[in-house]
Amino acid sequence: MYINVEFTRKDTAKLVINTNTKYNVMNIKFMTEFLDTLADIEKEKNCRFLIIKGQTNFGSGADIKELNIASKDREFAVSFFNYMKEIYNRLINLDKITIAQVEGIAYGAHLELLLVMDFIISKRDAKFAAPGGKIGVFPPVLITLGPYLIGIQNTRRLAMLGEEISADEAEKIGLITKSTDELDLETEKIIERMHYMAPSSLALMKRHISKYLERELDNVFKTLSIQVTSDDSREGINAFLSKIQPSWLLNLSQSK
Description:
Blueprint: E1 3-9, E2 12-17, H1 28-42, E3 49-54, H2 64-72, H3 74-93, E4 97-102, E5 105-107, H4 108-114, E6 119-123, E7 127-129, H5 140-149, H6 152-160, E8 165-166, H7 167-173, E9 178-180, H8 183-194, H9 199-210, H10 217-227, H11 231-242, H12 247-255
Parallel strand pairs: 2-3, 3-4, 4-6, 5-7, 6-9
Antiparallel strand pairs: 1-2, 7-8
Helix pairs in contact: 1-3, 2-3, 2-11, 3-10, 5-6
């Protein structure tokens, strides 16, 4: 089991991710389990708030080993990215307020999870990045929702420059809600403030704020399923696994 769920109070569930890797990764086993867990939580009518966190690290993104398979097998690529797209769509449409707690790193697909959460509380020493372009795999949710949520220039910095940013910077650009040394305390403060809102009002606000987030996700994930099988992606993924430089970096070095 990669996911553990406990109810910290009657109306609040905490979902903890642990994929038994150095950094939590997003693979098919995790994605199917995550979707099943969200379906179970959806049935809990008394649950209004869902906290999602990783064990030690929030997550390092898509499993590079399964990306390697996807780069060579179009059918697997379509399946892999359909599961991933469904996770983002399910979180957007979940009838619970979602709060991410970030420790360690939130890279790649895990950074993109934050874009579909309602609130994000982060440790002050957490790091955020979307380095997929370096191995030839672009970040679909970031380039689609990022301009709407954190602005075009910040999206370019994260996606096209592959910058790693601190929690303070992530808070400054609106990627996260708050950086703090007290995750649970800050999360509790946010939940308490929402208790002043009528449940129906809160649910409707979430629904209408989030309805814009599904735009273009279908198209961008279809493009990614094709792009991951390109020569650049295959080379970039193999170079990462082999700990060598891809040709575009070698060509850059030779041109200097």
